[in-house]
Design a protein that fits this description.
This protein is of the alpha/beta class. The protein has two domains: 262 residues, Aldolase class I (TIM Barrel), CATH 3.20.20; 74 residues, no CATH class. The protein is built from 15 helices and 15 strands. Strand 5 and strand 6 form a beta hairpin. Helix 1 runs parallel beside helix 4 and helix 6 packs parallel to helix 8. The chain is globular.
């Protein structure tokens, strides 16, 4: 089957494939710019933009790390990433992923709008006040991430009542995605929470609010998976981990190699300072954390509000900002490497163009 284009607000995505936003530094200008250029939707992660271009956009560093949220989520770094992505994709639709749980969420959303982002995608919490920060930018499409029909209903009710606005699309993320989950450990393995069982009820809820396009995410790997999601009623899919296996991916070569070398049993759910389980690769860091021998937790960057300035990091045994940044810099000893459950299927690097061809036309 050939796939229809995906419409998000006023923007048309030729190939209905959204590249997942991955921070720190996995999906920045090179990956997102090339995905949009080739007809998908490239998504820039807003996480850790103070690390971009060797931290030149971070105004203050402590122990070689951006100080506090103002520098970790650098406005100047974010603008530079967006500007460089635009050099690649031109005026094709370009999105940003901005986690709701971050400190300075509202400010970072405004930064994205000012820098010319077309679509904003937000998960890691229910973004019930997301439209508040984009009121001056009515052309920016808003896409929340949910894990249930109930969550979508809550968002639609609040947005309609408070802002007379509805989501332009919604990403439905199941528990096979990389990084943070919208479920507890126990819920991640329950049959009713698997993506294939979530799509129909969320599509039904979306239909009640004017047929909001549903984008299925979490474990989508190949053309067959995309066809399965479309048959269930999805209008598109979001894929993160698979795009790490591209030459253009902004990630360090060591990070790509960690996934290429990973076996199925190496991909695990782990505790996170954000308060929900996160999915990634078992590495030297996870062994250190299990033995309570991980690097010191100093909370220099103050990245996410649920961590409570490092208190939750101390409970789980690692600082998420520092350890993701280590992975971005290629540190195999203390880096944290997120992956979806299918990450072990990566065996080689290919171009973004070749990947999108495989996904839309088959192997």
């Amino acid at each position: 089957m050939s796939f229809k284009s995906l419409k998000i607000g006023e923007y048309v995505i030729e190939k209905p494939i959204v590249q997942g936003g991955m921070g720190v530094g996995i999906s920045w200008d090179q990956l997102a710019g090339n995905v949009s250029k080739e007809g998908g939707l490239g998504v820039i992660s807003a996480v850790g933009t103070g690390y971009y271009e060797n931290k030149i956009h971070s105004k203050r560093l402590v122990a070689d790390r951006p100080l506090d949220a103002a520098n970790f989520y650098s406005k100047e770094g974010f603008e530079a990433i967006i500007k460089n992505a635009r050099k690649i994709c031109g005026d094709k639709p370009l999105a940003a992923n901005i986690l709701y749980a971050i400190n300075d969420y509202g400010r970072v959303v405004t930064d994205a709008c000012e820098a010319g982002i077309n679509i904003i995608i937000t998960g890691a919490g229910l973004p019930t006040n997301m439209p508040e920060f984009t009121a001056d930018y009515p052309d920016v499409a808003l896409v929340p991430i949910v894990s249930s029909a109930k969550a979508l209903k809550i968002i639609c009710k609040r947005w309609q009542m408070r802002y007379n606005r509805l989501p332009d699309a919604v990403v439905l993320e199941g528990p096979k995605s990389g990084g943070h989950q919208g479920f507890t450990y126990e819920q991640c393995s329950m049959p009713e929470n698997q993506l294939e069982n979530l799509v129909a009820p969320v599509v039904a809820e979306a239909a009640l609010w004017g047929n909001i396009p549903v984008i299925a995410a979490g474990g989508v790997w190949d053309k067959n998976d995309i066809e399965e999601m479309m048959a269930l009623g999805a209008s598109g899919v979001q894929m993160g981990t698979r795009f790490i296996g591209t030459f253009e991916c902004d990630a360090h070569e060591n990070l790509k190699q960690v996934l290429i070398n990973a076996k199925q049993e190496d991909i695990i759910l782990m505790a996170s300072p954000v308060g929900y389980p996160a999915q990634g690769v078992r590495t030297n860091l996870t062994k250190l954390v299990e033995n309570r021998e991980g690097p010191a937790i100093k909370c220099i960057s103050n990245c996410v509000s649920p961590c409570n300035r490092g208190e939750e990091a101390k409970v789980v045994g690692f600082c998420i900002a520092d350890r993701l940044s280590d992975a971005f810099e290629g540190n195999l000893e203390t880096g944290l490497f997120f992956s979806g459950t299918n990450g072990y299927k990566l065996t080689e690097l290919i171009s973004v163009q070749e990947l999108l061809t495989k996904l839309t036309e088959g192997e």
